[in-house]
């Protein structure tokens, strides 16, 4: 039943990846630039939660504290860096370079503070297993699935049922019209960055519960999530989440026929196919 275990692991990994993809989709669709610093925010969230747990904070307090802190960091990045660049008329390429630089600075600062060695949370309950349909799942993996599904449903409800969510969709749809109708796009951008950074913190804590903390662990996660967003359709929450699941499952199932180091080729193969035959993404007209 190796294929079943690989399928289930792919769905678990896809739920974690889906949270990052939703975050990136919200930010990119609204601000219209590639914000790659979430790779560093992803790592930062895990280290903040680890630090709070080591100082005696309960696990749920550490997770909540890390989520709030990452949300504030995201808002500060938008306000202090991207908004200033926008006011000075910086091109998207300049903003991208600034984002890359910020990610590098943050990740190296984390490595300097915590070392580049893998750190473990050391929580006995996290690795306890439960048999479901013949597959063994850890408590962490089940939490990842629950948070992934809840994040998707929450993002859909937020985008379509709340006033702020509708403002975000309006700004993403037509920034110029949003400006002249006093929807205050710059404030919306700050809110989106805060929400996206808070969301990316959740897998930033849950994934290291299984694999351990590494300062640069968010880079491959963000890269794969970006491909899921583009293939799913920029601005589509459903497309980002579903393509994240598909990519993660295909990566895992590919282990049946090829070595693990080649599975990343599946991701780029999907990207190339969509760029050739469906460049606007699967869930756009």
Task: Map the helices and strands.
Elements: H1 2-31, H2 38-54, H3 59-87, H4 92-114, E1 129-132, E2 135-138, H5 139-161, H6 163-173, H7 175-180, H8 185-211, H9 218-232, H10 237-253, H11 264-277
Antiparallel strand pairs: 1-2
Walk me through what this model shows.
The chain is mainly α. It has one domain (2-277): ABC transporter involved in vitamin B12 uptake, BtuC, CATH 1.10.3470. Helices cover 74% and strands 3% of the residues. The chain has helices at 2-31, 38-54, 59-87, 92-114, 139-161, 163-173, 175-180, 185-211, 218-232, 237-253, 264-277; strands spanning 129-132, 135-138. The protein has a two-stranded antiparallel ribbon with strand order 1-2. A hairpin with a 2-residue loop joins β1 (129-132) and β2. α9 crosses α10 (237-253). The longest helix is centred in the N-terminal third of the chain and has 30 residues, at 2-31. The termini are far apart.
């Amino acid at each position: 039943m190796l294929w079943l275990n690989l399928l289930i692991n792919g769905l678990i990994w896809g739920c974690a990846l889906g949270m990052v993809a939703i975050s990136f989709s919200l930010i990119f669709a609204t601000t219209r630039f590639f914000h790659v610093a979430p790779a560093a925010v992803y790592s930062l969230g895990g280290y903040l939660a680890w630090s709070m747990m080591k100082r005696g904070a309960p696990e749920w307090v550490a997770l909540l504290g890390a989520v709030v802190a990452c949300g504030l960091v995201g808002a500060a990045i938008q306000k202090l860096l991207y908004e200033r660049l926008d006011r000075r008329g910086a091109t998207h390429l300049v903003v991208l370079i600034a984002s890359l630089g910020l990610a590098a600075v943050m990740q190296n600062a984390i490595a300097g503070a915590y070392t580049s060695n893998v750190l473990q949370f050391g929580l006995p309950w996290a690795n306890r297993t439960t048999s479901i349909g013949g597959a063994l799942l850890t408590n962490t993996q089940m939490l990842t699935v629950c948070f992934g599904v809840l994040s998707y449903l929450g993002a859909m409800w937020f985008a379509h049922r709340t006033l702020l969510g509708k403002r975000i969709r309006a700004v993403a749809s037509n920034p110029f019209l949003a400006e002249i109708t006093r929807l205050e796009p710059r404030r919306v951008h700050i809110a989106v960055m805060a929400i996206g950074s808070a969301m990316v913190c959740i897998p930033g804590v849950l994934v290291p519960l299984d694999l351990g903390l590494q300062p640069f662990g968010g880079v491959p996660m963000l890269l794969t999530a970006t491909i899921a967003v583009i293939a799913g359709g920029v601005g589509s929450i459903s497309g980002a989440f579903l393509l994240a699941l598909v990519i993660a499952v295909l990566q895992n199932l590919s282990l049946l026929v090829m070595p693990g180091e080649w599975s990343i080729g599946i991701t780029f193969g999907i990207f190339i196919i969509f760029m050739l035959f469906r460049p606007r993404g699967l869930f756009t007209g």
